[in-house]
């Protein structure tokens, strides 16, 4: 006697679901292997497979709503959420913006005629623009704040004042405080609607006041930087977008549609100051490390800014800031010092007399070692307000020819590095020291220790310059040691004298560094060369001034442990 067992329909459905899940997993695993063979960077390779627009269409991931959703907002346009807006790790959730009435985007105009009393501009009310101090003949600067910020933030008024001081500018502050508050996911979505509102105003300025898009400069911080990018997607030909530490969460690793990218304006320059990545086991930062402009500036490697470490000198800034600037600014120092530093650097650059000169370099370590110091072939760029368009973009412009002197001054696209100070003045002069070491018979092959210097010129003196800023350094006789140091003072073109101070360092954990009775702890120096960086100009094409100084007594200087030697500009060879 045989018994026939009938399976319940739910069991067959469960098996089918498991099979579909296994199939989807195998498809994703196959896709991951294919991507891992690409030429992208290690982190991008590891995570790029998770972008929803990279996952094959037939892979069903029920927690990601891939269907095309669209919402329209009257005359300003529509928004949709498609696959490209999702990433399994970087951007797993997406929502639509809050209603227009809640975000309540407002545009407040300031000019030299009304530097502190703003005038409200309404796109649909032409009289509000016509009766304001808006001048179509002037360039227009938009200031866009970020997450948890408002137009009342100290930095907004500081930037506004510095811009107006330049004269003949329309400065428009974008107020989207109704949509910049937590939750962050919702705030990121709200930026898209703010961009539609901005694009609507710009179109009104174009059609009714003949404003040219190339005369518009969008300056955005954090989420405001990506907002500027969305505006650039709506309005073709925007002259310039400056991204001040564009926000990382929900944007890093995403496609260009989702974030700020070079296609959003004729010129996109970006300052990165808080690009510490959670995925690289660092203390997470608020800003992107990923390049997203034609020129990307990384002051102090774009991560930890001088004076911001609470465990060091940064902790002392909080009570002082609280007294001077109030609780809001003190909170910024405590929670977002690195993130806000991009704003301070840009503000300082507007009317400051010290140029923020940056160097195109493979890495910050190469920059500190002095390997990217020459301002030739467009390898230097000025960071901040006075940043200039790369030569490649100029060659693609309407002009048929570029003047030779313009080619010399124009930078190339890429990543640029520089060092700044921990407090005002943030701008620093860059000096490259090249210490040429001699190798007499009595010298050890190498010695380890610390070097400091003093520079004397016609303009004054700088003392206590640390030439081994990363601690005890190994110096090999017969070679050259190079390092880039910074100082806010400009010593001019001619260095008269340099004094070197040498201190040998013995480490009990490294027996070869122990120098008691059987070794020579002296440092032998043939010459010292000091180079000062300057941006090239039409009048002065030599971008750096070099001063080689030698010992007056003999072929080389013999510097004993804890001793010093003086070098003069009397080299005969």
**What percentage of residues falls in helices of 4 or more residues?**
10-25%
**CATH fold name of the largest domain:** Rossmann fold
Report the biggest beta sheet as strand number plus sense, adding barrel if it closes. Answer: 11 strands, mixed
Instruction: Show unreliable segments.
Output: 1-42, 311-316, 318-324, 397-408, 538-543
What would CATH call the homologous superfamily of the largest domain?
Alpha/Beta hydrolase fold, catalytic domain
Number of domains: 3
Total count of strands: 23
Strand order of the largest sheet: 4-3-6-5-7-8-9-10-13-11-12
The CATH C-level name of the largest domain is Alpha Beta
What's the CATH architecture name of the largest domain?
3-Layer(aba) Sandwich
Domain Lipase: 72-388
Family: Belongs to the AB hydrolase superfamily. Lipase family.
InterPro entries: AB_hydrolase_fold, Lipase, Lipase_N, Lipase_panc, TAG_lipase
Keywords: Disulfide bond, Membrane, Secreted, Transmembrane, Transmembrane helix
